[in-house]
Amino acid sequence: MNNYVVLSLVAVGVIAILAACWWYSTHFAGRKINQLRQDQPGQGLTHEGTDPLIEQHEPALDLNKTENVEADGHQNDFMPASEPPVYEEIEKEREEAAQTAALASDAAPGSTGMEAVPADGSVHWVLTVTPDEGRTISFGAVSSLVKALKNLHYQLPIEVYARSKRNNLFYPAQYLPSEALEVVVTAVLINRVERLNAISASRIRTACETLATDCDAELTTSMEIDQIESMVENNKNFIDYFNRVLDLLIVTRDGKAFDDAQVNAMLSGLGFEREDGFWTLKTVPYKRDGEITVRYTDDAHASLTLRLDLMLCNPARGDVARLFAMANHAASHLGAQWSDSDGNPLTTSGALQAEGLIAKELRTMARYGVPAGSDRAFALFGKGA
Prior knowledge:
Number of helices: 9
Number of strands: 11
Shape: flat
Structural class: alpha+beta
C-alpha cells in the first residue's frame, strides 16, 4: 500500500513539472519572440520577411539556357550551372577541331596524312622504297627523287608519297612533316595523252633505284617492266570505248558576233575564270582535270561551246544537269539560242531525254569498275600530268 502511494505522488509531481514548462513557454518565451520580431522587422520567420537561407522569390529555371543567371548578371550561387565550366573548354576544343577538319576537307587529299597510299593496281605502276628497320629516308633524299621524276617531263601523273616517322601516316612529298620510314611512287599507266612504255618505265625505276642505293633501302614494284605493256593496252581499249564529252552550243540569233565583255561578265558571274581564249570552271578544286570549259566555236565569235568531260563529271552531284542549266542561262542572258553539238535546238524535254541517255551510259561504265568522277576515272581519262 505504501509503495502505491509513493508511485502516485511521483506521477503527480512529473505531471505538475510538465504543466509548468508548457505554461512558461506559451507566456514568457512567446512574449520574447514577439519582442524580437518588433525590434527586427523582416528578419523573422514569418511570411513578411525573408529567410537568409531561402530565396523568397525563386527565379524560374529556363531549360533552354545553359546556366541560371540573376538579373545583375552574376551566376546564382544557389543554382549550379547545368554545364560545369570544364565543358566550356571541351566545347571550344571541339569547335576548333571541327574548323580544322572543315579546312582540311577543302585542301588536297593527303595534306593531313593518310593511312594508306591512294594507289590503284589497275591504273598505276607502284614502286616502293623501304629502308632497313630503324633507318629513315631524309627530307633531302625525298626531294631529290621528286625533282628527278619531274625532270622526266612525262604527261603521265607521277606521285611521290612518304610515310612519316612522326605519326606513321602517308603524305604527299610536299606535305611530309618528318623523315620518312618508306617512300611510295605511283605512275599512271596510260591516260588520254600518253602511255607508259618500257623506256619511260625504266627511267622511273632508275630514279627510285638511286634513292634506294643512297639510303641502303630495298626497291619493290607492283609489276615488272615487261608486264606493263599488256596492262597499258587493256586500259587503252577501255579509254577508246568510253571516251565522251558533252558539248552544247550557244548561237546568236542574228549571226552577229557576241559582245565579248558581256560574255565575260555573264560567265564570271557563274564562277568561270578566263584563260587564254577560253573560260574554265573547276568541278573539283584540287584536280587538274574535270572542269567545264567555254570557248568561242569559231573565229566569227557568233557561237559559244560549253563542254563537260563526262568521264570526269560527278553524276550524283548533278554536273550534267548543271551544264544544261548553264546553257539555258547563257542563252537567255545573251539573247541567243542553245542547241546540241549538231546544231539541233534543245527544249526542256529534249534536255531531260539527253540527260537520261547520258546517265545510262555512265552507269554502264560504272559496271565495268570505273564510276564517272572517281579517282580511277581521273587516272584513265586525265589529259596530262
